[in-house]
Design goal:
The protein is of the alpha+beta class. Helices cover 17% and strands 42% of the residues. It folds into two domains: 106 residues, Immunoglobulin-like (Sandwich); 154 residues, C8orf32 fold (Roll), CATH 3.10.620.30. It is built from four helices and 14 strands.
Length: 276
């Protein structure tokens, strides 16, 4: 599947802002299942943009605008190709849940087994995870049970939460948006020692106005597999990965700080064109 994406974020300030520093995670990674053919990032007011790779190998662009400005626009353009990974049969039994602790031996799993800014692994979360998994003894069956539980427990409600909402609040309200579904699923998986990470990206089948969020879980002898608890499905070629981390705080598409008024307006527009 071929992707052409334009992602534009614009801030407008009631009075001029200055000394603005920003980090941007809008360049998708080339990895198994996706190839990035072109990427362009434009910033207005014009600024010198540098980049590096963070601890999770995400590409992070950063720039500073010291002079006063009434508006800031950040626009990325992406051309990419995604390929379908053979789905794991829903009935497959891949690895005993009783041995899932062996996953901790992988150096890539440590950060994704513990609590993080918006995710906890407290006893209440552990008990909820056990209820969701019930008597299941296979790790792959367990994560599917957790995905079904989250999908059936949380109602999708636009603007019901913010990107800073913790999973505990989502469970209390029983409603949220895609990052909330992901955070709850992460907590339940980690609470029973299944490594799980947060993914930010795009979903081709949505009328996208922003990025989407899902999770990846690690099953020993199988590897990392993507699951979308918002839609109760495995990840396929309809998903394009931008960045990964412990939770949303590690992968925010645009983050930064500035000196000036708190009276500002932010608009985000995402346009996705799909071809074969």
């Amino acid at each position: 599947m071929r992707w052409d994406i334009v992602h534009r974020t614009e801030y407008r300030y009631a009075t001029p802002a200055k000394e603005s520093f920003n980090q941007v995670r809008l360049q998708p990674m080339t990895s198994e299942g996706q190839t990035i053919e072109a990427f362009e990032l434009v910033v207005r007011p014009a600024a010198r943009v540098r980049h590096y790779r963070d601890f999770y190998a995400n590409v992070v662009h950063h720039f500073e605008i010291p002079e006063p400005h009434h508006a800031l626009a950040i626009e990325s353009k992406v051309q990419a190709v995604t390929r379908a990974e053979p789905p794991i049969p829903p009935e497959a039994r891949l690895f005993p849940l009783a041995r899932i602790g062996e996953a901790a031996r992988s150096f890539r799993c440590h950060d994704f087994l513990n609590a993080s800014k918006y995710v906890d692994v407290e006893p209440e979360t552990w008990r909820l995870a056990l209820d969701a998994v019930n008597v299941e003894s296979d790790a792959w069956q367990a994560v599917q049970a957790i995905m079904r539980f989250v999908h059936g427990t949380i109602s999708y409600a636009s603007n019901s939460t913010s990107v800073h909402t913790h999973m505990r609040e989502v469970l209390l309200r029983r409603q949220g948006v895609c990052q909330d579904f992901a955070h709850v699923a992460l907590g339940l998986c980690r609470a029973i020692k299944i490594p799980a990470l947060y993914v930010s990206g795009y979903l081709a089948t949505e009328a996208a106005s922003a990025t989407h969020a899902w999770i990846e879980v690690f099953i020993p002898e199988t590897g990392w597999r993507g699951l979308d608890p918002t839609h109760n499905r495995q990840v396929d070629e309809n998903y394009l990965k931008l960045a990964v981390g412990r939770d949303y705080s590690d992968v925010a598409p645009v983050a930064g700080h500035y000196k000036g008024t708190q009276d500002r307006q932010m608009d985000v527009v995402v346009k996705i064109e799909i071809g074969k």
